[in-house]
Amino acid sequence: MPRLDLHVSTIIAKKFNYINIPMGYDDSFYNLDPTQSIKKVDQPILERVKHKIGQYKFTVAYAGTIGKANRVEDLLLAVQYLPPDTGIFIIGKGPLKDELVESYAENVNIHFFEPVSKESLPRVLSNFDILVNMWDDKNIYRFGVSPNKWIDYMLSSRPILVSFNGYQSIINDSGCGWFIKAKDPKLLASKIEEIRLEYTPEELSDIGKLGFDYVIKELNYKSLTKKISENLDSLQKR
Q: From what superkingdom does this record's organism come (predicted)?
């Protein structure tokens, strides 16, 4: 939580030192080299994704758990406000997946896929125009969040649209996407359409690249470890 200090200050009366270390990136974990094949188990999913993408002028993807807190249905409800040349792709599993697959089975613009290994996920996500991440509206989010999903998304070099009412960080720090109000499918659709109309594919790629560069430079474990070390050193010198 980037602003956990605001909460701590309501509990601890005396002055305290605080440093935020967000979710980090392990450069030995992901397969980001486009000249290398992704994991064999993920290859069929990637091929199916690429086949479906060809049917649309604009594609939107969500990857991750499909549960109540993930607000995936906000995206599915937004489809009714989007033009038919926009495809919605859901990659993952979770307690609500079967229910949503059944409920939206007749909507030909919505496509569900099996989960992809974390190692291959950025390579798969790099095929879409934008990525989305929906959140519930919880009071604790006012202190911010640092989800590993954003690392996966940013490493795909694609722009990110987040529906979130809490303290904003990482996405806006890097300039790789947008925040909008949570729990509003119509607003979500409106923003998706706005992005589709106002940005060229090249401009979207440039925005997405900002996220990739930010993760590589600012969120790798070496940089985060250095930040901790420098702050501890400064405390010892006081």
A: Bacteria
